[in-house]
## 1
Amino acid sequence: MITQRCDVLIIGGGPSGLTAAANLAGDHHVVVLERERFGGGIPRHSDHTGYGIRDLHRVMSGPAYAKRLVDTALASGVDLRTESMMTSWIGERSVAVTSPQGRYELAATAIILATGARERPRSARLVAGDRPAGVFTTGALQNLVHLHHRSPGSKAVVVGSELVSWSAVLTLREAGCETVEMITDRERSESYAAFHHVAKRVLSTPVSTLTRVRRIVGRDRVEAVELEHLASGAVRTVPCDTIVFTGDWIPDNELARLGGIELAAGSLAPAVDTTLRTSRPGVFAIGNLVHPVDTADVCAQDGHHVAQGVRELLHGRQNESANIAITVDSPLRWVSPSRIWRVDVAPARRRLLLWTDEYRPVAKLTATQADGVIGRITLPWPAAPGRVLRVPWSLLANVDPDGGDVGIRLG
Amino acid sequence: MSPVTWSGAMNGSPEVFDVVVIGGGIVGCAVARELTGFELTVGLIEARSDIGDVTSKANTAILHTGFDATPGSLESQLVRRGYELLSAYAPTAGIPIERTGALLVAWTDEELTTLPKLADKARQNGYEHAVLVDAQEVYRREPRLGPGALGGLAIPDESIICSWTSALAYVTEAVGRGLHLLLDQRVTGLEVNDSVTKIQTTRGAVHARWVINAAGHGADVIDRHLGYDRFTVVPRKGELIVFDKLARELVNSIVLPVPSSLGKGVLVSPTIYGNVMLGPTSENIIDRSDTSTTPAGLEFLFEKGVRIMPTLLTEEITATYAGLRASTEHDDFVIDLDGQRRYILLGGIRSTGLTASMALAEHVVELMNNAGEMLAPRSGLPPVPRMPSIGQATERPFQDAPRIDLDAEYGRIVCFCERVSRGEIRDALESVVPPTDLDGLRRRTRALMGRCQGFYCAAEVEALLDKGASGRGGHPEETS
Ligand SMILES: Cc1cc2nc3c(=O)[nH]c(=O)nc-3n(C[C@H](O)[C@H](O)[C@H](O)COP(=O)(O)OP(=O)(O)OC[C@H]3O[C@@H](n4cnc5c(N)ncnc54)[C@H](O)[C@@H]3O)c2cc1C
Ligand SMILES: Cc1cc2nc3c(=O)[nH]c(=O)nc-3n(C[C@H](O)[C@H](O)[C@H](O)COP(=O)(O)OP(=O)(O)OC[C@H]3O[C@@H](n4cnc5c(N)ncnc54)[C@H](O)[C@@H]3O)c2cc1C
């Protein structure tokens, strides 16, 4: 196998990877490996508006946003290699690549993992029943409708009621498929109350709470779905020919795991510090891979932020001043970053990103270190399952570099 | 849909076949392969549009040594012989196979006292390599086992294999030797005449001198067409959970429970594709086509799994499925020769048919010879086909630098989780027995079988399938 070299190797050409690449390309040889045929990541298949607000300061459609990011990266001199997949690690900072141009080894001084996140498919949710056609995730659905111009079906049940679930409903509608019901196993619907109201009215889709899929019925094509009410145990059958499983994110952590990188417990994402370094020397992780999932613009801003740490590494500087883990208590599920190796650097956008499993109309948070409270904050927005809770870094302003691990809890 | 007929011979079907095999599962395919090695015209009639589409695609894919069979039974003899034959054939045909060995684990005192008896039974079955091991050794071999293992019996020769590729290899070789493969054609009746049997099918009549019944769950129905009433197939459902490949390092060998009166029990095993499998359940059902998983079945497996290997259950689940064993009221395979009517029954091939397949085929030849057929081997047979490598232990095309240099399509990965290239999908579509649907393409390439279950590639793979082999060069995705 031939070995090639570069300064910075970025795995994944989505919003976070491309933004990091464009930032670093001026002075260094930056390679982006993207396994799909085109760069741009998930927004490429997400043909609706709502992209680019925080990073490009304008609102555009997913595909337009993806194209902008690719064009900017290319104009900055990024060596973007599409249809090129990292399949495994070879050395500490070298990887094996498969592409139509060949199978080769690529070695770098710094590696950034930006492989994104995806929704758990039906099987990973242990849903019993037949295994017919007509069962999708939002990602697979949008791929089918937007990139391949195929039609899903005519009557759908959507599992989940997060923002991404409404995105699925919109895609279904566009493809001529009616959503007969949305279900969530939670006590209330997850998306922003205001958005939810509008969406419910405009799309007139009923949402059933405390409900789960018990069984899928249909040999070749979905014919119905059996829904169980969690409180009463009552089971009812809803005829439909399409089922979309939305949300329930899992980071694409295969490469991180193969590389022996420490994972954060609640998210299964690589644990990173405020400079987005992982536990493997010289390897960084950004985007939805580390916070499954936030919006594309927030991921892109990781790409800006990581550049600083990467430059320091390229210039031979490595700063360690602490070894503090950040942990969360239930109902919080995870926090990112989850490590502080340097107290002098705030995280991207000066925000901690958290995930909650329970709804709180007003998010009050407390930070502790060695059993003492070091910070409290009350946010003017709710903590809601199904979307990232963004918390100002000031919550941890008083962290003691020698004070041991930090805990964060709701309330 | 027009009849899907793949035939090695350029000319049409003969007016009267020497032999027609009913059923294109692993057993029927093995029989077809064996018989086309003789001077015979052979047809294979399969109700589905692809071979290996019923029980032969949904099992635990273990190549059994037969150590725990009932000594003296036909099944014991054929499993042992089948193990030898398929172990030898697999490397030649490129069928993925790994000799992982098995470890029977005793969790109760009662099970512990059963182990020496099982070791004896293994010897009676002609298997000499079983070794009793203590608890410490059990944990040395399988450190991730849950607490409470008391001892074990190691069966170093149990192997894992790819049952999809096995059936495909048999039928590919058979077609190369001149088999007439009649797919999407269901047998509905049999009429035996003096020298020829008329086989009624959903696509008209087919004639043959000999009929071999390898119809799996339909074998009793076919048997009754001849006036017999000697067995009834009872589908016994087995549900399974497949875990993510990242779990593969948790388990080294096939971890078996000690069999009880309730059946073989739930095992944890690596799969040939590099996943880990938990199952199967065992439940008699009525509907012979119901391969759905059930809430109760999956829950049961979870309960068992947590005790056998707790860490496994924290891993992601890649798939769940169910298969149906064709069990009968008899305790052995139901095999019979009716020489006068030139008919052989291969019934009740319930939980060891993959292993026994080549031995069953050999047995058919023996029975036909016993009936006075004097089969003559054909000379100048084509070489054994080399099947695509879809196992995890051998090199896959995406890893093969020289191959990609020669043909860039092997470097163009379509299914990322399973690392399946466009070149392999193209090859499958152009193969001797090509897939007719997505499921068939999956079994031939592993596309869509990975952890994302199509999040990224479902649409693209489907488009390739629709375009068929003619889709070469073009790309289903418009510009972006
Ligand atoms: C259905 C849906 C609707 C959404 N709607 C919105 C919205 O309206 N507005 C918004 O702001 N955000 C939205 N999002 C979220 C947004 O798409 C993501 O936040 C963003 O794409 C994440 O960027 P990323 O760079 O972290 O990862 P991704 O965009 O997921 O990119 C990761 C890239 O890495 C590549 N890759 C992975 N592994 C390898 C490997 N081994 N080798 C080579 N390449 C690899 C992948 O092919 C992919 O292109 C939506 C998401 C979904 C799923
Ligand atoms: C859960 C489970 C686990 C197992 N594990 C193992 C294992 O680890 N090792 C092992 O060796 N074995 C195992 N087995 C057993 C093995 O899978 C079966 O014995 C084997 O697949 C049977 O093959 P077959 O060809 O007889 O049947 P099938 O695969 O069912 O094939 C019969 C074919 O006949 C066709 N057919 C039926 N009726 C008609 C008709 N009227 N006209 C035309 N065609 C017809 C059907 O469509 C079908 O394709 C397992 C089975 C199960 C269910």
Note: Residues 136 and 452 of chain B are 38 Å apart (CA to CA).
## 2
Amino acid sequence: MMYDYFSSIVTGITAKLEQDPQGIHARKRYALAVATLGRRLYSGDARIAWCGVTAPFDLLNSMGVTSCFVEFVGAMLASTETAELFMQGAEDAGYAADSCAYHRAVTGAMLKSAMPVPDFIIGTSSPCTAGLAVMENMAKQYNRDLFVVNVPQSESPDAVRFLARQIEEMAGFVGDHTGQALSRNRLGEALELTNEATVLIKEIYGLAKQKPSPVDSRFLNNFGVVITLFMGTREGVDICRGFRDELRHRVATNAMDASQERIRLMWVQNRIQFPFPLESMLAEYGAKIVVDELNDVTWEPMDPDNPFESIARRILSIPFSRNADARVTHLQTLAREYQIDGAINPCHWGCRQGTGLRGIISNGLKEIGVPVLNLEIDCVDSRNLAEGQIHTRFEAFTEMIQG
Amino acid sequence: MYFLGIDIGSLSCDAVLIDEAKNVVSSSVVPTGVRNLEAIARVTKDVLEQSGISEGDIAAIISTGYGRTRVENRDGAVTEITCHAKGIQEVIPGTRVLIDIGGQDSKAIHIGENGNVLDFAMNDKCAAGTGRFLEAMARALEVDILDLGDLDRGAESDLVLSSMCTVFAESEVVSLIANGTEQREIARGMNRAIASRTFSLVKRVAREIDGLTISMSGGVALNSGVVRALRESLKTDTIHIPEKPDTIGALGAALIARERKA
Ligand code: SF4
């Protein structure tokens, strides 16, 4: 079923792109790459690994493994409005209905055999240990080996060494399961491609910061998280170039609609993944999202001569890998750089990062004069969301900002 | 010239008509019922009849509340957050924290020195601690909802209803009655439960409330037991209650209509 679904998307987008082969169409090309990855995961003939969000996908790509974080499946099921069926299945099997719905959806899909069986599993303790529990269940369910990357909450030299050693061990684990040892040359090439893509990503974010911003609320939706899956590949570089070119084009042709930007917003953590008229609702009030918390480059370029340490430093630089202060400081920096007027925190149900830090994040942003709207919604489970309530909160928030 | 504000809430539909000098000329509160268009027509007719003015004399109409987009002849729709903040400033100037507990939502609004909204928080997941909750409790206690306010007089225990889920709280009340717990102690426990929930809403918008003028609007402000429990939990001697707390949203809407026409 999922294979057919992804295949039909690939066919549909390819046909559309063929009508205008010279066009940039950044988001369409990105959607095509995502659907192609989805199709490969469900094809049954790729070597696949289910992973945690902060796994080093460039390293895995260099080893010929089709890898993906499990939350991607949760988001994808939500976007196709099929998540409820799987979440219900997980709840019926005894999973708490107020646990993170990304994981509930994935667990339900696993129980209903709607997840491709992996060759092996790589769990990461960042951004949340709830994800690790899913990985453990998955390892049991599929009788597959699990490698856990424990991410320390610090950037100290010891923490870097500790994590770098684990990454190296992980590469050994992958080699043992694929029968192909890591090639330092191929890894070096992959990291060069990561660096090439990262330069483009930085330019994308730099352009998004402009006032008025050439992005609309949807343009970079989920971008920062999903693009990590394509790191270390030429395809990843091409996707980033497409986004960069489209933004350059918008700036050059003055295509930014300043009237849609009376209020510049930051979205905290993940977006709502099921079909929901977020962007049009915001547009009604002249508001748009110019930055997402997850869209940032917090690391230095990768050093191909020192790959494990570089990867470790990258993982540790991600604010979600560290403590609450790191996240607040990062959000404050983004708020200033993007000159935002307010922030929206969905406070995703059951999420330690989302609901657990609600007050700390609000206070941190209020300290620098940025008002925060805490929604307390479920970004994956549409059964837990009342559109009218959200409408009122957006409207009241924009009225408040405009005084 | 007159200005009309209509607040269509889940339980009641309120209208306030003011003149150019901001005097309240007439007001009306009716149950919203299932057909809110009928309720809107009724309050509009009421305020016109009471004041003796004709519809043509109304210069602007602003609607608010969850049904604000249902008012067909409106000149604008504004959220209840902005309207309540505006309305309370008119009747209790200097209010910095407004607690509004209505039919099925409760909110805390932090208001700046110049009357602007600084922050707000609303109950999110259920109707616990709102008018609907009180209705269910009155049913469980077998008293009229209007008599709930004084029911806790003389109660002294530290009982707090453990559950704030309306359905579970109702069955908790039934068990307490069966155990012989006095009605006034149960009523106090219920008020303290509402107060503790409201307290966290207030703290979410204003960390320091010492010295700030706190006011309350919405139908639940008429329940003296809840107000007493709130005073205790907020550690304040005074919570200001306007004369007609259930029409503050509509008053704010009328004031905004007047401003927009100026
Ligand atoms: S939303 Fe929160 S709980 Fe869910 S996967 Fe992300 S960090 Fe973990």
Note: The CA atoms of residues 59 and 187 of chain A lie 6 Å apart.
## 3
Amino acid sequence: MIMEEAIPPVFKKRFQVLLDDEYDHFIESINQPPAHFIRINSLKINIESGLHRLEELNISATPLPWYSAGFRVSGNYKQLPFTREYSLGYYYIQEGGSMLPPLALNPKPHHLVLDLCAAPGSKTTQLAQMMNNQGAIIANDRVFRRITSLGHNLQLCGVINTLVLCEDGRHLSTRIPHKFDRVLIDAPCTASGHLRSKPHQFSIKDFQRIKGIQTLQKGLITSGFRLLKPGGHLVYSTCSLHPEENEAVIHHLLSHSPDAGIVHPNVPGLKSHPGLTHWEDTQYHETLHDCLRVYPHENNTDSFFIALIRKEN
Amino acid sequence: MRKPKSSPLIVDEEWESHVWDLLFTQFGIPKLKGYRFLLSGKKRIRLISEVASTLLPDVPYTGSSGLYIGEYSPRAVRLTMDGAMLLGQYATKQIIHLTAEQAKEWMQGESINYENKQRGYVIVYHKEDILGCGSLSQGILHSFVPKTRRPKHP
Ligand SMILES: C[S@@+](CC[C@H](N)C(=O)[O-])C[C@H]1O[C@@H](n2cnc3c(N)ncnc32)[C@H](O)[C@@H]1O
């Protein structure tokens, strides 16, 4: 938990501007203990049996309004990682907000999908589940030691449609000849949206890193967009609240790629705010309104930013 | 930073047929469509969907592509836990069912007493769960549940 007094003034000021009259609700919600979530891995167990087994383990599960395989858990949930059911790969522990980008991307079983920043694989395993282990996913991450946990999670979840790659995502478009139906860029970020679950990450140093991270994020989205087929969809997401890591990056892509257009993600049951069309002195493309800002006080998850982009034919 | 291995995986149809033959002879698992086998290192069999396998030539191997489903030897395949979970449902023989108590011990990696006329590798069930693949010999069922997958509360 984090107390309002512990929020560095520079953050506080921007949160007040960003949240406006919802600021108090926002602060109240980040002072709550984080909620806990799991995904039932339907590659290994069907949802109904998965729920039944949770009951036997004395774990209560409330379905998320926006995803039939996602659940908020309470009761004996802390024991879950030590159970046989977990060892068998029936469940995957994943923050509720983190389930949103794959839902916005909405891959189909026959698709060729690229997950550009994939480790440790929460979203890759979810994508594989949504695709019913069909089609193909290339899961890439630049950091080789994180590839190990990605591999472990793919194995645990029984994923067979994924190839793992270890490259700098900014240069991938020159390394592989394929074009993808779907591209996910769950970008490295300052993680300023993890205020509840990881308050220790909430530091002024992160704020100073924003510029450098933004350059990396722009490089990743440019490369990811190049790897997209005409007519294909790309999701750019971060767990940061800072417009510099979100709208500014999308604005950069739109300004340099006339064939990029924003689409409003269709995630029924999710409460969200529109993307910003200006921040401080900068005016962004009007269509950024169709991006999603997800705040903790609305869905009881961590914060997320999600942009769905289509490459025109 | 450790560099990824660059050695390619072998996709060889003759060897793949041999693996399917072994699975059929051992467990009665029929040849299934849409899957390809890859050999990683000397013994590791990885299974990958057919569509994903078509991308292999363009994706330098990092050791984690596809699902590690078993250890190959020319006479038998020893399935991994996830291999047994995926393919074991099609098995028609070499299947055993454990009691709750036996399942607990076996999941901890312990060998257990198990009198049975079957010999060799078996698909291990408890109720509707496939727990993995074990090896039966002389009244003992050996467990191959890897350390990282042994639950504290089995
Ligand atoms: C937010 S995390 C991804 C989380 C992951 N999508 C999941 O759901 O489990 C961002 C990832 O980007 C990776 N990364 C950082 N720079 C990168 C680059 N230049 N190319 C590819 N991946 C990069 C990091 O190693 C990190 O694993």
Note: Residues 97-311 of chain A form a domain with the Rossmann fold fold (CATH 3.40.50.150).
